[in-house]
Each structure stands twice: as structure tokens, then as C-alpha cells.
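User: quick one, fold this
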Amino acid sequence: MNIVLLSGGSGKRLWPLSNEIRSKQFIKIFKNDAAADSEDKYESMVQRVYRQIKATDKDAVVTIATSKSQVSAIHNQLGEDVGVSVEPCRRDTFPAIALAAAYLHDVQGVSEDEAVVICPVDPYVEADYFETIKKLWELADKGTANLMLMGINPTGPSEKYGYIIPAAKDEISKVSTFKEKPDMATAQKYIDEGGLWNGGVFAFKLSYVLNRAHELIDFDDYADLFSKYETLTKISFDYAVVEHEDDIAVLRFSGRWQDIGTWNTLTEAMDENVIGEGILNESCENVHVINEMGVPILVMGMKNVVVSASTDGILVSDKEQSTEIKPFVDAIDQQVMFAEKSWGTYKVIDVEEESLTIKVTLKAGQRMNYHSHDRRDEVWNIISGTGKTIVDGMEQQVKAGDVITMAAGCKHTVIAETELQIIEVQLGKDIRVSDKHKYKL
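Assistant:
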């Protein structure tokens, strides 16, 4: 099975755990009972979905369509084997799917005759969802219709989803009409007509989308499309393709399906009320604490509240009110304090006018880019693990207790033999992320 996961958005609605780099799908908040290591007790949305796909089809080929800012986090959490179709910028779902289709064909060598499933990366679902995904892929592979959709049996009227109106009540049916997000009254009308929620899952032969892409976009191949991507019109796959296709069929899904986009819906899917250091007294009701800080949080006498703490900030909110978080977060002007990289993680622990102190954790066998800075000096204090530094071409073995100093303009990198933890102190009057030059080692 070939499956493309759409991974987008900055996830500001789950601040302070999400930020411009760390989207909601990378927050490790779901209990992983299958984990052998206590350090992997929790998994993120993307890890959970990837694990569920592989449990359904161990030979499934997974490609993630995402922005450049998320690539490091994807490799950090899923490893280097997963395919990544990188969008140079955001252009909505049709350009993203067209680029991913060209990537599969031109870069990965996938035949135009193969079926592909497109699926969001962040639904909260169980194993039966991916069994249905596999069946959808099989139907597309057989040529049941030009375009196969998954229809979610609705639990009630909603303005958040598009609606699929099937021509019959069978498990697999031709689609009569396809409707975008309606108001509540119209949503109820669609449900009365047998309408299903559009869960954003599509299946088709690869040639189908490639042909449609060439009809709407002037490009030769993947490289050409990638170079033109910034000029493409922002348009959803629903508007560009689905609403113009006559040969569509829908496969019903009746299992659990939650669209987790706010603290309110996320806490509904949590197995535990407290993640991290937190204490709730006996009078608390429907309270959830998610704490990534190394200090305890005590909550007393609260009801229907979420408390979330990270290096980016602290949220204390009524759960219903938490859905209105975005404009407040947009008004916060703060640098990213935590990020996952392909090589490990970094966490900002102190910010001063002319210094920045960061805790860096490199995974065993990983290394930073060989790089330099024009406007800052750096000091590395090794606090655990072993590895090797290269400073202006000079190699040195390092261990806990060692200190390495790099002046501005000095080329440097560090390579971890075991997991390596470093306190990095940046010193200068103009410390900024853009002050970095990369070199081949």
C-alpha cells in the first residue's frame, strides 16, 4: 500500500506545546502501551498514525507531504526511512498532493498504474480506520472509480467538515453530490439525506492525479513543479479535483474518528489526566495537566480546565474557552524555545541581552552540520555522553566535563558516539538564527 500523509500547519491552537516549528502532530501526549522502553511511554500523533499503518500493512510505503520546517522533526520521530515530499511554501492541499504525486513518480519510481491513498496525519483513530484505508486502496487499485473517498458516519451536524452525499446506503456507493462546509441547518439537512463527513481521505491511481495536475499546472516533472511551487494558486484538493469529478465512489467508515485540533478535543483523547509532574486534589473535575517543565504543577478545586506548561509559556484555560486561543497566541512575540531536529533536540534555558543558553541533546550516531557564525562566539560544556568535535578541521574526543570554545568565524561541529548532552552558551550583541553558514565536511 502506498500512502501519503498530509502534515501541515503550525498548530498554534495547542500553544504552548506547539509553535512555528513544532506542530501539534509532533507533541508526545498519547500513551503508547506497546513501548518497551519507559522513555517511549508517550508518542505523538504522527508516531501513532505511522505505527498504526505499519501494524495494518507492514510493507506499506509511507510518504509525508510537509513543509521544510517539519522535516527535522519527522526524521527525529520516525527515522530516516520514511519518504518526505517537501513543500517549499504553503499552497493548500491540491498543490501539496500534486507535488507528492510527482515526487512518488519521478523520485521514488512509483508506477502511474499504482494506487495511492492520501490521508491527514492527525486524526485520532483506532486500528479499524486503517483497515478501511487499506480497503479503500484496494478499491482504487481495482479501478472501482476514478476517485475513492472515505465517508465518516457523522455523530451530528457540524460546520467543520465537508459532506459526501452517497447515491445509495450501501457500504460502497457512487457519490451523488459533494458539498463543502455548510452552516448548521444545512449540515442537518445533509445528514437527513444520508450525508457523510468528508474525512479528507482520497484514493486513486497515481496517473489520475498526475494527469489532473498537468491539466491545471504547466510543468514538466517533479523538479520543474518544485521550482514553480511558490507561484501556484492556493486551492484545496476538494475544489480543484473532487467537485469536478463525476466518477466518484465512497466507502463508509463507522468507527471512532476524532479531529483533534484544540485543547478541548485533545484532552478528550488523552488516557491520563496528568502528563509530566502534576498533582490534582480530590475536588478537581475534568482537569488535565500537560507539563514539559522540570517543576511540579499543583491544581486545586478546578473544573473543566486544561493546564499546559512548556519552555514557550504556560496556559491555564477553561476547556471551552481554549478554542479561542489563536488570536492571543498570534499577539505573543517570542522566539522558539524548543525544537526537534533530525539529530536530536534543543531547549533554550536562558535568554539575556548578549547571551543565549541552550541544552542540546544529540542522539547516538548523529551530528550537527559543519557550520560557522559571523556575529557570535560559542562555548560547549559537555555534561554527559561521549563524542567528537571538529573545530576548523581539528578533531578532538570529548566527554562529560570537557569545554570547547569557538570564536566567531570558526567552523565547528560535534558528532555523538553515545547520546550526548551539551550546554551551549552563545555570546554576542547580535544573536540570531539566520547567522549561520553551512559547509561540507
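User: anything notable?
Assistant: The longest helix spans residues 127-142.
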